[in-house]
Amino acid sequence: MAFFAISPPLFFLSLLIISSTFFSCSSKDKVKERKSRDAGLAVQKEASSFLKKKTAALDSFFSSLSKSERLAQLFVVNLEGKKEFSFVEWIEEGGEKKPLIPGGYIFFSFNISKKPEEIAAFTDSVREFAAEHGALEPFLCLDAEGGYVNRLRGVAGPLPENKWISKNLSVEDASFIYSLNAVQLRSLGFDLNLSPVVEVQNESNKEFLNGRSYGSARAAVGYGSAALLACQKNGVAAVLKHFPGNNSVDPHLALPLLDYDYDEFFRDVLEPFAILARNKPKGVLMSHALVRVQGFSKDNEVPASLSPFWIKETLRGRAAFDGLVFSDDIFMAALEKNGYPSERAVKSAVLAGVNCILMSEKRFLNEWTIVKKLYDGDEKFRTAADDSAKRILAFKLWAAILEWN
Questions:
Q1: Residues of the chain with pLDDT under 70
Q2: Distance CA 282, CA 266 (A)
Q3: In degrees rounded to 5, what are phi and psi of residue 106?
Q4: 3-class SS string, the chain
C-alpha cells in the first residue's frame, strides 16, 4: 500500500497557508459581525432615543392638561345625534364655560344613519366640535363584531358572525374580509372596534354567545389573530373581549358566575388570551362575571371588571397584555343590581386597573365629579387615574388623533 507523504517544510508551509486562509476568513467574518452588531446597536440607540423623546413629549403634553381634561379621558360614553353632533354637558372652569368631552364616544345603532355619507359627516362633526372649542379630540368606537352584533350591518358590506367564518373560511380569507371591514370603518370615521370576541365556546356559554364565538381555543387564536391584525393594519384599533369570559347569564340582566377547574381555565381562557396578546391588540374588554378557578383565583366575590386580581395580576401579569383595559358597560344589571351602582363602580374600576370606563349613558358629569373628588383626596387613586390617562393619550397618538412633532 502506498502512502503520500509531505516533507516537513512543505507540511508546515501547507499548514501555514491553510491556517492563514482560515484566520483570514475568520477575521473577515468577525469584521462583518462587528459591523452588523454596530449597525444594530446604532439602530437600537436611535430607537431608544426616539422612544425617550416620545415619552417625554407625551409626559409634557399630559402635564399641560387640566385635571378636568385628564379625568375626562377615562370615560367612553354614548352620544346624542345621528346626523349631526349635539353636545349635552358643560362645566365652569376658570371662569369659562367649557364642554366636558370624554376620552371616547361609543356609537349604538340609533346613532347610525342608513347613508354612509351621513355617518361620515356625523363623525366629522364630533371632531369639528372638539376643534372649535380647543378640546382634546375623543376617539370614536362601536361594536362591529359581525352577524347580529354589528352596528353597521344595514350600511356597510355584510360581515358574517364568528361561528360562520371559522366553519366556512380559511384564516387567510377571513383576514381579507376583516381588512375590508376595517377600511369601511376607517372611511366612516371610526378609530376603534370593540371586537373580536375571542371567548372559547363551551356548554355554559353557548346560549349567550350564540354564534359570536369562533369555537375552540385553536379557532379563537387563529381567527382572532386574523381579525385584530387586519383591523389594526388598516388603522382601526381592535379590542378583544370578554376577559375572562361569560356563561349563559346575560350581564345586562344579572350577574354571571363562572366556575372553572384549573386545567380548563388555563387551556381555554388564559392561554388563548396570552397568545393573542402577543399580537399587540390595542384593547381588552373585561366581563362583569364573578370568576372562580379552583386553586388559582383570589377575588372570588368581585366582578372581573372591578378586580385587581383579574386585571393587574392575571391579564397584565400572566397574559402580558399592555394595551388599554376597558370595562363593560357599568350600567349593566350585573353591577348595578349587585352592590355596584355607578358611583361605586367607577372608583373600583380605576383602582382595579381599568383605563376606559364604558357607559351606555350619554351623560357622565356625575361619575366624572366623583372621580375628581377621589383624585384630590386619594393618592393611590390619583396615581391609577394618571396612569390610565397617559395610556389613553398614547393610544390617541397611535390612532393619529394626537400628532407628535
A1: 1-51, 405
A2: 23
A3: -105, 130
A4: CCCCCCCHHHHHHHHHHHHHHHHHHHHHHHHHHHHHHHHHHHHHHHHHHHHHHHHHHHHHHHHHCCHHHHHHCCEEECCECCCCCECCCEEEECCEEEECCCCEEEECHHHCCCCHHHHHHHHHHHHHHHHHCCCCCCEEEECEEECCEECCCCCCCCCCCHHHHHHHCCHHHHHHHHHHHHHHHHHHCCCEECCCECCECCCCCHHHHCCCCCECHHHHHHHHHHHHHHHHHCCCEEEEEEECCCCCCCCCCCCCEEEECHHHHHHHHHHHHHHHHCCCCCEEEECCCEEEECCCCCCCCCCHHHCHHHHHHHHHHHCCCCCEEECCCCCCHHHHCCCCCHHHHHHHHHHHCCCEEECCCCCCHHHHHHHHHHHHHCHHHHHHHHHHHHHHHHHHHHCCCCCCC
User: Which amino acid makes up residue 252?
Assistant: H
Distance CA 196, CA 276 (A): 11
Q: Prior bond to 244 cis, omega within 30?
A: yes
Residue recorded with cell 393618592:
379
The separation between CA 215 and the C-alpha centre of its own chain, rounded to angstroms, equals 22
Omega of the bond leading into 242 within 30 degrees of 0 (cis): yes
pLDDT at res. 3: 31
Q: State the Cα–Cα distance between residues 126 and 131, nearest whole angstrom.
A: 9
Cα dist from 140 to 52, 111, 277, 346, 353, whole Å: 28, 12, 23, 21, 22
Q: Which three cell numbers stand for residue 129?
A: 366640535
Q: Are 381 and 374 in contact (CB under 8 A)?
A: yes
Position 33 scores a pLDDT of 59
pLDDT at 50 (0 to 100) = 58
Quote the pLDDT of residue 36.
Answer: 58
